[in-house]
Design goal:
Helix content is 47%, strand content 12%. The chain is mainly α. The radius of gyration is 24 Å and the shape is elongated. The two termini are 21 Å apart.
Length: 205
């Protein structure tokens, strides 16, 4: 029986890693650092705190930062005044922004990286298959979910595991991992990051 440690050793690559492309993305609202103290104290209605503002200006000048990119605009802050209020609850408002905007940044960065790479997105799966010398059936569940549902980002993982479990039961295999005891799951995210999980199957009956 293969141990977890043996699986971990087998999945570690030897030799230098290769970065095939890099994609980055920033929020659309850009604020110049030299004007940021005025901007910040104005939108937070704190211009009367002159001593604190001067201290903040000195901090900004010494920070070596020239620009700041952010989603928060004066319009958004007017709609969500708690974001600017000291100790006021603003988690829900911030979370609403994050849920919508972060995936957009991830998509933009990934699109740039794939464009620089110069290969079709589908080749990512093919590269894994080729580099690991996998037989086509090893990615059957992955391709099935991609064909049926499209790219659902991280949710794909659960759909693929469910597809493997369902198909294993239909075909009378002894485990939920297509008859095998151990497996490795690779997840690819924005910016072409990779996450790896070692899987241990259970009996189908």
């Amino acid at each position: 029986m293969v141990t977890v440690e043996e699986v971990r050793r087998a999945q570690r690559a030897e030799g230098p890693a290769t970065i095939m492309a890099i994609g980055t993305a920033t929020p659309p609202n850009c604020v110049d650092q030299s004007t940021y103290p005025d901007y910040y104290f104005r939108i937070t209605n704190s211009e009367h705190k002159t001593e604190l503002k001067e201290k903040f200006k000195r901090m900004c000048e010494k920070s070596m930062i020239k620009k700041r990119y952010m989603y928060l605009t004066e319009e958004i802050l007017k709609e969500n005044p708690n974001v600017c209020a000291y100790m006021a609850p603003s988690l829900d408002a911030r979370q609403d922004i994050v849920v919508v905007e972060v995936p957009k940044l991830g998509k933009e960065a990934a699109t740039k990286a794939i464009k620089e790479w110069g290969q079709p997105k589908s080749k990512i799966t093919h590269l894994v298959e080729a580099k690991l010398a996998l037989k086509p059936e090893k990615l059957r569940a992955t391709r099935q979910v991609l064909a049926e549902y499209g790219n659902m980002s991280s949710a794909c993982v659960l759909f693929i595991l469910d597809e493997m479990r369902r198909k294993s039961a239909e075909e009378g295999l002894k485990t939920t991992g297509e008859g095998l005891e151990w497996g490795v799951l690779f997840g690819f995210g924005p910016g072409l990051t990779v996450e790896t999980v070692v899987l241990h199957s259970i009996a189908t009956n």
